[in-house]
Amino acid sequence: MKGKKEPVNRKLLMWLFILTGVISLFLWWRGKAIHESGPVTNTSGDMRFVIEPTRSSPGLSPSLGLRNTKKIIGEIEKLTATASGTYAVYVYHLEDKDSYGVNETLEMPGASIMKLPVIMTVMKMIESGNLKLDDKYTLEEADRAAGSGPLQYKKAGESYNLDELLGYLGKNSDNTAWVMFNRRLGKNAIQDTIDSEGLVNTDYKNLTTTGVDTARMWKFFYSGKIGEENRRKIWGYLTNSIYEDRIPAGLADTEATIVGHKVGTDIDIWADTGIVSCKLSVARCKAKPFVMVIMNREVKRSEAVEIVPGMAKLIWEFENS
Q1: From CA 174, how far away is CA 183, in angstroms rounded?
Q2: Do the domain assignments include residue 15?
Q3: What DSSP character marks residue 205?
């Protein structure tokens, strides 16, 4: 007599089929997520900087879609290859938080770019209620500083409110206003702001910083750490300055863009940094807001006046393409 056939456990087979489907679906989703996640990022504070698209390891930046940053980095390096001195260039996307650069972590002299931490400190104190824009400082003889700005020619004893002084500091890069803030706020308080905002490679005493840290300064102004009204004030201090011959000069379509920026100038320094954004009403302007940092040292001015706007043009055309 033949043995009886064991009945098929249909219920068990059904559950095995469902389980196999669930596992397959999970593995497909996981693979898709990894593929779309883009380069590995380094998190520091509340800012994330893409590691891959840099000079040492150029690659694809997620916010740039399929455009390869290797090309723009190569063009930047070519522009400065035979130039005097050293250049540090950094581009940071304020919304997508992606970046690329050349020498962006190299310590560089900041010159008047280091007036940005002063504005940061004043704004933090205003936000906390320790200062008001209509507070006044009196110009003293000890405050006078040669170089940029009209306050060096004003009479001692005259008073200016903080709103006016910040305007001089931003639009005129006024050195006397800078001294007035340094004396009243104290350089230690300004360095404290630098430290608290994670600018780990910025030294206020020696006026040095990096491209990455400079981007963090601009991120501070762009972020929600500052109220809307004060952000509008800051934008007013840092647009339409008397120094529109660097980054703004490289943006041929000035009717379509807005540039809030701060220059740095010395005998062998001719630098500029800022936020570039499109006017909402101009459809041909496609770039999302981004920070552009162009720093240098030991350069010949005759070369830098061509290279800095030229570099700004290269970056803008890449970002707006």
Answers
A1: 15
A2: no
A3: T
- Considering only CA atoms, which of 229, 214, 215, 45 is closest in space to residue 127? 229
* 34 in a structural domain: no
Is residue 3 one of the residues assigned to a domain? no
Number of neighbours of residue 52 by Cβ within 10 angstroms: 19
Tell me which residue of 157, 202, 226 sits closest to 293, measured CA to CA: 202
239-252 residues labelled b (16+ CB within 10 A) or e (exposed): bebebeebbbbbbe
pLDDT tens figures, 12-47: 556 656 665 555 555 444 444 333 333 222 222 222
Number of domains within the chain: 1
Q: The pTM is what?
A: 0.79
| Pairwise CA distance, residues 182 & 3, whole Å | 99
Burial 186-213 (b: 16+ CB within 10 A, else e): eeebbbbbbeebebebbebeebbbbbbb
